[in-house]
Amino acid sequence: MDRSAPVVSIEDLKPDIGDAAVTLHVCVTCRAGEEGEDIVRPGRRLHDALVEALRREDGPRDFRIVEVECLSNCNRGCSAALTGPGRWSYIYGDLNESSVDDLLTGAARYAATADGLVPWRERPMIFRKGVIARVPPSATPV
Asked: Strand ranges (DSSP E) for 15-141?
């Protein structure tokens, strides 16, 4: 047994309510092939369009939208990732502002699952064709 490791109680390992949300991470630094420093980057435009569309919708959402600086997927245009505790995580590419409705629909369906596995036929087309990676859930601490 490693006695140099800090003692952590089981209560400290449980996520708080703020950690329980499903998150749609959107890369705001994506250029999607556009050059120039004076432009609003396509990733930023996608993020802002998602936030605005979510604002216009009625009712609560079971996910949040968070901007990130880079998802290291630069060759596949704008990128986003879906994550949630105990769920499979996904990274998607080839996105743009026309993807907003499908991203919101897909994120809502993902949030409605316990494990992040949305049945194939219920996934928006961009989720079927634009998936870059699927990452297994982290192990639950015991």
From this structure: 22-27, 63-68, 78-83, 89-95, 131-135
